[in-house]
Amino acid sequence: MIGNSNDLTRHNAFERTNHWIVAVCFVLAALSGMSLFHPFFWPLSLLFGGGVWTRIIHPFIGLLLVASFVPMFVRFRGFNRMKPADWDWIKRVWEMAQRGDDRNMPPQEKYNGAQKLIFWAACAFFLLMAFTGLAMWRAYFTFPVTLVRFAVVIHAAIGAVFIVMIILHIYAAIWVRGTINAMLYGTVSRAWAKQHHKIWYRQMTER
Amino acid sequence: MTNHWVDIKNADLVLIMGGNAAEAHPCGFKWVVEAKKHNAAKLIVVDPRFTRSASVADYYAPLRTGTDIVFLGGVINYLLSNNKIQHEYVKAYTDFTFLVNEGFSFENGLFSGYDAETGTYNRSSWNYQLGEDGYVKTDPTLQHPRCVYQLLNNHYSRYTPEMVERICGTPKEQFLKVAEMISSTAAPDRAMTIMYALGWTQHSLGTQMIRAGAMVQLLLGNIGVSGGGMNALRGHSNIQGLTDLGLMSDLLPGYLNLPGEKETDYRAYIRKRAFKPLRPNQMSYWQNYEKFHVSLMKAWFGDAAGKDNDWCFDWLPKLDKMHDVLQVFEDMFQGRMNGYLCQGFNALAAFPNKAKLGAALAGLKYLVVMDPLATETAEFWRDFGEYNEVDPAKVQTTVFRLPCGCFAEEDGALVNSGRWLQWHWKGTEPPGEAKVSTEIMARIFIRLRELYRAEGGAFPDPILNLSWPYRIPGDPSSEELAREESGKALVDLTDPMDKTRIIRKAGEQLDGFAQLRDDGTTACGCWIFSGSWTQAGNQMARRDNSDPFGNGQTLGWAWAWPANRRILYNRASARPDGTPWNSKRRSIWWNGRMWEGSDVPDFKADSNPAEGMGPFIMNPEGVARFFSVDKNADGPFPEHYEPFESPVGLNLLNSNPRAVNNPAARVFKGDREAFGQSKDFPYAATTYRLTEHFHYWTKHCRINAILQPRQFVEIDEDLAAEKGIKTGDMVKVLSNRGGIKAVAVVTKRLQPLVVNGKKVHHVGIPIHWGFKGLARKGYLTNTLTPFVGDANTQTPEFKSFLVNIERA
Amino acid sequence: MALQSLDIRHRSATTTPSPSQRRTEEVAKLIDVTTCIGCKACQAACLEWNDIRDDVGTNNGFYDNPPDLTASSWTVMRYSEIREGGGLQWLIRKDGCMHCQEPGCLKACPSPGAIIQYSNGIVDFHEEECIGCGYCITGCPFNIPRLSAKDGKVYKCTLCSDRVAVGIEPACIKACPTGALQFGTKEQMRDYARYRIADLKSRGFANAGLYDPAGVGGTHVMYVLHHADRPGLYSGLTADPGISPLVALWKGAAKSLAAGALGALVLGSFFHYVARGPIEISGEREDEQEKEGDAK
């Protein structure tokens, strides 16, 4: 696409595609999972062709989701090492949300503290969801019932927390103008980078 | 059964021995549960195996298979020596006081009169001392050394608790506990019922085991009373009907019997069977034998039977010997037969020593099998690999299979163990080309009759003159046959007391056997069934279950032979003076004018107790016999002999090599050689049924196959450990006649018994598998069993033989 | 097999009341193991009435056959041999759905109406609504439901809800030859059990008792046991069953709270956006960047 030539490249096409595969899978897994999670969400199963199809599809979406996250993990883990500045940033998130402004926040690398936390949480959650999901996949596996009972609780609880986290992730992207472009088109404006990820901005511009 | 299924609920104590009612008669077993629930009854099970019956018993005692007479003899000894008998009962209602012939003796395992050459007894000395008047001499004081009581006491004094433990392997305290529980029913107000089945009959001394049980019951006064009795649990739904109708080689319907080959004189034949009373004022009901016999001949041969031709006596076969199934297969095996008609009988599976049976069948020219199922017998010639290794090319037998309907596809009556004839209605028609058995038999008969008519033949008379009055000759209806068995008047019958009164017009159905005549004016196909279809209609179809006395006699439900009596010998339920022993369970009583009660009196209805008629009206003595005179082939008192294949190999009760096994049992040449020895086959084996299956039928039924799909054998944990067998392993079980392979079920329900100081293990072998059907293929269990039967009935010894076992 | 539709007490995955205008008396099956002879007539009757057929299996060294409950065997007999103090006991227990007053299966089921509890206490699976997730298996304290490999549905004893709905006893009761299986109102069955227990105590079974576990609110299938103090002797009958705390946690208030929290979060985010607006890049910084860019 035609953009401002001064814009900084934040994500390349592969990364963006990868992210959106994961995102779509996540949404599908979340919607199908939620339909089984509480009767309130049961109508969501209609999106998947009814309860039986929801039950059949959900684990496969889950598998795809976890599998497609693997390249993301490989690619992004280096950018997500937690540093003291990240923790400082996280401590002041509430203040930022209240003020509706991040200009007083500590300078951040390519990803801010919250993004890094989300990354690591997602890694952990995917692992847990995969294992607990397999344990409760009765069409193919039979495990001791106590194990399954632990698995269902963990799967449901992590699922809920994960969805909360992803809602925050999405909201953050909407809230911070220009962020969605980073994942849609791969670029951000220099001003965006300077304001939100000063350290990364410096790294990018000083080269 | 002397009593009937429902009456079992009246028992105070139930002894299941020689049977496993819960396993093989689960529906009838409900009455045991009723007795336990509502009558506070206790249940004792004595069996080599801890059975399904034992699982709900109050007390279980093990014993070695085939040693029941020792156990029961021990009980008899216990009752006599502890004075736990019902004195008034035994004195009045049994032969206790009768004096026995001086010539009778028992020494070192043999009764007097044994002929070692033929292996049979000359029974002439087994009799009573008769007085001048022709009656048996008695000693009411019971002191005379030749009175039955003294002989009995003497005979069973050898059966001590220690001897029981040594031979049966039953720990002494367990035996004594059982004996003590049993002895509690010597009280007149307590009754014990004995339930037995093939666990007693299928031994080389089966008849005597049953007699021993009956003797225990007599000592306790438990025969004839409600909640008591000797109750044979019949193994098929209509096997009682089979015996009642005389489907044995030596019987005619209604327990009449065929003449022997020397009995060519009709009068002598009748005289020998119409027993005269042996004591004063006794009924000796068999005095009426000729009435039953003539009525039978009139039913069979109609107008052809007349006084002038002795009612066709000459047409009856004259027996040279028993032609029981073992004898027939022996003849077949020896090549003395060329055809065999096998109806509703899976001989290859159901009789011992399959190898011999298969070889016998292969020697036939033709075999006709009438059966609803594709039986092993019908396919004996086909190769089923390890399960039936045969080279069909070498078998020249032509097999005809005539598919027939099953019981649910025909109307008719089934006679249950309690002698009830219960009419049933067919649920559906036989499938495809199948026909009900009567139609098949009728059509074969008509074709044969045509052949005899056209070609003559050696002896056509009985065939050509057989009465065949059925509306559709090729398909006699069950109703017509049932009416014929019940009997009808051939002329107007007048009351013998009042010749002007007609009691039944010509052609009408009779009310009962009391109306049968020996002058050819009545016809009756089975005298004991007489009254089952009266002029009022089909009595067997009655379904009135009202129970006015609350004791389950329900006289309006179906019809019981004889004369709708529910408990045989019920006169014995009352004291000699006619008042019931037990006022809470009254059966019949004398009301000052006649006998009445909750049951039909098995007695002369107007015989005042003061006349002293005994309750056992079929016996010329009027009383029950401990000493069975010459009625049994193997002795007047039950005596223990080892099974023909015994893990002990010697009889601890005697030192006579001729008396290790039943000396009067028939063993064919070649079969004795096929017996195994304990050194090669050290384990006692026994065969039995399981609840999940019925014989060799239900393996053809999917649900039964699901519930018990595969052949197995049971062994105790000790033996399993010794042999390195784990439950679920495949094992080989071998006898001297062949081997089978099956899954091992290692169980605590079998336990090694210490017999004469030596450990004896049992191998339990359920029967139900074969090479046909829906269940997993298996071996016919009778590959293993020995070809020898009970000395009296020739029922094969399926319950006790020897095997070895090893991992397959 | 919804012959009943007016007398539903609970319906799976349904948060509103079910049709419950009609109230029926609570029923119960009483299994008196002390008079059970393990004949398997109940198993056969179950196969026949429900017209299901399991596979012809094998023998694994035990009487138990089929060896376990399956989607086509809704009841099986379990045999255990116990030797205590010299005496042997062959304890035979008919296993199958206990029809809990508080059914763990129903609690766990995510599919509306796939599991129904009628007001008479019968817990019934409606397989046409079953999605095959197997959550009921996870929820069941007695390990009863079985997932069919053939159709991906879960099956178990219906207590012959179809027969009971028209006033006749379950097929197994009808077939039981000894009267070890009884059926009636729960009250009648309790009375009958008391009568049986008194008899057993008179025979020396001091610990005879009724198995009607409170942990699941009582059951509509109850046992009379000789050793009510040790239900485990009967092929591992659960001594004190209850819906697992994990299942309670999984399907309890936490779920509603979580669902609410999700909704609140979405709403909260929206209102945050409305109230605080998006973070825009400030105009001065944009200009600054423009300049820098031009400079280069």
Descriptive notes:
The complex is a heterotrimer of chains A (207), B (808) and C (296). Chain A has helices spanning 13-37, 51-76, 84-91, 93-99, 113-135, 145-175, 179-184, 190-196, 198-205, and strands at residues 8-9, 187-188. Chain A is an all-alpha fold. In chain A, helix 5 runs antiparallel to helix 6 (145-175) and helix 8 packs across helix 9. Chain A is elongated and about 55 Å long. The two termini of chain A are 24 Å apart. By secondary structure, chain B is α/β, with parallel strands linked by helices. In chain B, 23% of the residues lie in helices and 16% in strands. Chain B contains 21 helices and 33 strands. The mean pLDDT of chain B is 96. The longest helix of chain C has 24 residues, at 253-276. The termini of chain C are far apart. The model of chain C has no long low-confidence stretch (mean pLDDT 92). The chains are: A mainly alpha (207), B alpha/beta (808), C alpha+beta (296). Chain B binds chain C through residues 22-23, 26-27, 29-30, 33-34, 36-37, 40, 50, 52-56, 58, 60, 691-692, 702-712, 726-729, 743-749, 751, 774-776, and chain C through 34-41, 43-44, 47-48, 53-63, 65-66, 73, 81, 83, 87-92, 177-180, 196, 199, 202-203.
Annotation keywords:
heterotrimer, A: mainly alpha, two-stranded antiparallel sheet, 2 strands, C: 296 residues, alpha+beta, three-stranded antiparallel β-sheet, 9 helices
